[in-house]
Structures are given as C-alpha cells and as structure tokens.
Design brief:
With about 575 residues, the chain is mainly α. It has 21 helices and 10 strands. The strands form 5 sheets. Strands 1-2 form a two-stranded antiparallel sheet. Strands 3-4 form a two-stranded antiparallel sheet. Strands 5-6 form a two-stranded antiparallel ribbon. A hairpin with a 6-residue loop joins strand 7 and strand 8. Helix 1 packs across helix 18, helix 3 packs parallel to helix 5 and helix 13 packs across helix 14. The longest helix has about 40 residues. The termini are far apart.
Length: about 575
C-alpha cells in the first residue's frame, strides 16, 4: 500500500495568516469562561453525528464541559502567554491580562468541581453540566483517567508564571488534589474509557503519556513548593508505572520495523481488537502532549528514562503506517494529492463509525496535531537530536520525499504542508473550525467551533514559532535530553491479536483499497459465494428427490407390516 503525503520542499512564509489567527483566537475565546462559570464549552454548534448515534438519548450535544477538552484548551491558553501567536492579527489579542483573567475563572471552576468530588462525585467524571457543575446524568463512557492529569497540567502552567504567592499556594492546593489521586497505585492502573469515549482499557498510549507528563510537572512544582514528600511520591509512581509508556505500545508492522499503537499490542482488551485501534490518531496526540513537549529541568529529565525522540525511526514508521491507512480510508486525501495539494488529513482509527454515514472522517484537531509533531521534530533536530541515517531513509518513505534530510527546515516544511491542506478545507468557513472534514466532499462536518480544534491549531502554530523562522533556545523542551541519558533501544514483538480479524495495519493495508476490500479479493469472494450457493441448491434438490423415493417405497410396503414392525419402526434402531 502507498500513502498520499505530499510535501513542500521549503517552509511557507506563514501556513496560517495573522488575520486567520486573530479570527480563531476570537472563536476560541468565546468558548471559555461560559457565562462567567470558568467552564469551557466543548462546542456550541449542532452535532448531527451524535444525533445519528443516540438520537434523543444525547440531548444537549456538546454543550458541556469535558475535562479533557477543558484541560487541553486552558493549557494551550497558558502556553500562549507572551508569544507572537497570542497577539498576531488584529482580533482578540491574548494579552497577559486577558489570559490571567481566564485562568482565574478556570481555577474557580476547578474548585467547584473538586468540592463535588469531596461530596462523593467520582474524580474521573469526564462530562460536566455547565449550569449546575454536576456530572452528566445520562449514560456515558466513564471513568476517564486523563481528566485529572490534564486539569492539573493546566493549573501548573498557570501557577508557574504566577507572582502572587498567596494565589500560587491556592493553585497548589488544587493541583495536588488531582495529582494525589493520580499518584495512587489503584488509580494509575484503573481501567479507563479511551480518548474517544468508546472502549475500555487500563493501558492506553494517550492516557499513559499525559499521566507521565502531569506527574513529572507535579514533581517539579512540588519541589518548588517545598513539599518533598509529594514530590518523591509523584516521581516514584512515574518510575514504577510510567517508565516506558512508548515502548509498551510498539507494535510490529513487518520485518522492516514497528510503530506506536494506542492499545498495547500483546494484551489488549477485546474492544481494542473489535474497533481496529492498532492505528489511532490518539497516538499522534499522545506524542505531542508528552513530557518531551513541556518545560522540565534537565535534572528532572535525568531521573526517568527519556521518551523516544520525534525524529526517531519509530515515529517515522508510525507516520508511514498512518499515512497509508488514512490515505486509503479517505477519498478526499487521494483527491487532494492528485490536485497537488500538499499534506495529508488524519482521522481517529481504522473502524471509526462516527460520521455522517456511520463511517469515520478526518478530524481537524488530529490533523493539526500531526503538524505539531513535525514542528516538535524540527525543534529536536535543531537542538541536537537529528534523525539517524536509517531514520532519514524511513522518513523519506513516510513522506514520499526523496530529498528529505531530517533538518529542522525539512520538518517545518512537512508541518507547513499539513497545515496548508487543512487550510484548504477550513478557510471557506471563515476559519470557524468544526470537528470533522467529510472524507468525500472535503467540507467541514459536526460540532462547529469545537474548542479542542482551535486549541490544537493554535498549539501547532505555537510549536512552529519555537523553531521557525528563528530557533528559540530550548532549555527545558524538545532536545533537552542529557547526552548521557541515551534512550533504551527499541524492539517490538509481534502482536498477539487474532490474525483472522482485519485489525493489524499489515492485514488492513493488504486488503483495503479505497476504504473497501481490494477488487481481486471481491471478485474471488463473489465466485466462492456463487459456487457455495450452487452447491447448496444441488444438495437440496438431490435430498428432495431421494426423500420422495423413500416415501413411495415405504408406502408400497406398508400393507405387509405387522404390529410388531410398527413398534420397531418407532424405536431407536428400527427402520424408521
């Protein structure tokens, strides 16, 4: 199978204009601090995809606060503080005052949520009614263990730049409430719903990556607050349970290498298998929101095994695999490439059924996350972690770019290519970002003004600004891995998933053509079905004719049967 990624040979001047950034900031801002509550609404728009799935059973659409969406959005807002992405363009500048006001409102909301937890509400409740502050009362996939981790990260980002000692202490009380829950041996192993709220597992790639990031950030902040007992606890749990969240999810693709999967390859639950989550956009999100992307001191990074670099061969193999899958699943990807539109669009997972025709579509936020991954790779390359020669060869295959050399400039060009394809499909809506892009028409679909979509696009542009056009010194982010802390060599074992189920990417790619089974396989299957039906018809006809013959023969002999013969005919072993 082949991908359809098309790359620009050089970075663009600006993949997204300042005017567009201003518009998106305004739409993003309107979803924060809803009615003065501090809550973040997931989307104020209509959700036809949700209505198709559950009809009247999911009233309210996305008009709720999701802990994951809210945490990620507030983290993005905090990270924008003092950057050019916060103020570019003429609309809705995110000044320090604006960001501080939003962060204070969010802290009040978290205080309210945690008070409910003290009164008996599950701390891993994912979906909150904005008007009441109470958990969603309908049926929903829960618990979701990434919520407390992401909430804590957003608050740590707020507290890290806070100069008011009293407020900093108040934030620490909120932060440690969530991190204490996370740093519990029971909770860290708790079975959780996945990022898409569809299946349960105790070892999702996404959850493990953001948990590790939150605990390491918490370790540093606890030390700064002088709480060494908690700092040591957070570090201990990280070392014991989250030392190798990337290696644990390496799945063998073929003899040439392995890639990262959302579910563990050897002991995944049944629902992971049924939904085909070997290829899942949650992996891309997990890579960009890992502890490699957050501000940590080199001394902190030395205390744990470093995660795989975004320039590595394993990441290149992941991108290659995902490109092939999503290029075949989505018609719009192939059509865009045929029109020489650069980039690629990513969606959720292989057997995604959440869309207008009960089939999955590309997602805006996952595609933006892919661009962020390329920009983070550019940062790593510029900071002393360029791809090794064998990794460069794999990147060339993944990006279908013979002249790719693994420089920061090359990775920026790849990220710009992705954002430019995304631009083609969203700018016609005046930069209102939806949840999905229809895989056939290329039009946006479902949940207009999805807050998470804005957060990921703004985050992508923020990651780009760190390395292009002028690299920013990365003291605590990408490329800060100490030279004496070499990542563990990666090997991947063959998956133990059933070979008769079309779940592994190698199985999928050998049998998938334009989103369906390959033509020759369909023809062969049709012939086999026809032969089977013909055989059944012949057997039925033969049996019917023989039955009639037996009946006629028995009728002709019936007059010569004695009473004892009648009894024998009804007994086991008799002629009957």
């Amino acid at each position: 199978a082949e991908g359809c990624f098309k790359a620009y040979p050089e970075p663009l001047q600006k993949p997204i204009s300042d005017a567009a950034l201003g518009l998106m900031r305004r739409y993003f801002f309107e979803n924060l601090n809803v009615n003065g509550t501090g809550a973040v609404i997931a989307s104020p728009g209509a959700c036809p995809a949700l209505e198709l799935v559950c009809g009247d059973g999911c009233q309210g659409g996305y008009h709720f606060h999701w802990e994951r969406d809210g945490g990620l959005s507030m983290a993005t807002l905090g990270n924008l503080l003092g950057t050019p992405i916060a103020t570019a363009g003429e609309r809705q500048a995110f000044t320090a005052e604006v960001i501080r006001d939003q962060q204070r409102s969010f802290a009040r909301w978290v205080t309210r949520i945690q008070e409910n937890v003290r009164n008996g509400v599950d701390q891993a409740e994912p979906k909150i009614n904005i008007s009441t502050g109470n958990p969603y009362e309908g049926n929903w996939c829960k618990p979701q263990t990434d919520g407390p981790a992401l909430r804590a990260q957003a608050l740590i980002i707020d507290a890290s730049s806070e100069t008011d000692i009293i407020r900093r202490g108040e934030l620490w009380n909120l932060i440690r409430f969530d991190l204490d829950w996370l740093a519990n041996e029971t909770n860290i192993k708790l079975e959780s719903c996945d990022i898409w709220e569809e299946n349960d597992e105790s070892n999702f790639f996404w959850n493990r990556m953001v948990m590790r990031s939150a605990l390491l950030m918490g370790f540093e902040f606890a030390e700064h607050q002088g709480d060494l007992v908690r700092a040591n606890k957070y570090l201990q749990i990280t070392k014991e349970y989250l030392q190798e969240p990337d290696i644990e999810h390496l799945q063998k693709r073929d003899e040439t290498g392995c890639f990262f999967a959302q579910c563990p390859p050897q002991d995944a639950g049944r629902t992971c298998l049924e939904k085909g989550k070997s290829v899942d956009g949650a992996v891309i999100l997990g890579l960009i929101h890992s502890d490699r992307s957050v501000k940590l001191k080199p001394s902190t990074r030395q205390k744990v095994r470093p995660l795989v670099a975004p320039t590595s061969e394993a990441v290149a193999r992941t991108i290659e695999t995902y490109n092939e899958v999503f290029c075949q699943l989505y018609d719009i990807n192939r059509e865009d490439t045929e029109k020489d539109i650069p980039g690629v669009l990513y969606g959720r997972y292989i057997k995604d059924a959440y869309g207008g025709d009960f089939k999955g579509n590309p997602w805006v936020l996952i595609t933006a996350a892919l661009a962020s991954l390329f920009y983070q790779a550019a940062q790593a390359s510029a900071s002393g972690e360029p791809p090794a020669p064998e990794a460069i060869l794999r990147w060339r295959l993944a990006l279908q770019w013979d002249r790719f050399n693994g420089t920061a400039k090359d990775f920026v060009a790849a990220g710009d290519s992705v954002l430019d394809r995304l631009r083609i499909h969203v700018e016609k809506d005046n930069w209102h970002l939806f949840e999905q892009i229809d895989k056939q028409t290329g039009d946006q679909y479902n949940a207009q003004d999805l807050t998470w979509s804005y957060a990921e696009v703004l985050n992508a542009m923020l990651e780009r600004s760190k390395v292009w056009p002028e690299p920013v010194q990365q003291d605590h982010g990408q490329g800060a891995t100490p030279q004496d802390k070499v990542p563990t060599p990666m090997t991947c074992a063959a998956s133990q998933w059933p070979s008769d189920v079309d779940l592994n990417p190698s199985d999928l790619l050998s049998g998938l053509s334009n989103g369906v089974m390959a033509l020759w396989k369909r023809i062969l299957l049709g012939l086999l079905v026809c032969c089977g039906l013909c055989g059944c018809l012949i057997a039925v006809a033969w049996y019917s004719s023989r039955k009639r013959a037996w009946s006629d023969s028995e009728h002709s002999d019936s007059e010569g049967l004695s009473s004892s013969d009648d009894e024998n005919m009804l007994m086991p072993g008799g002629r009957g």
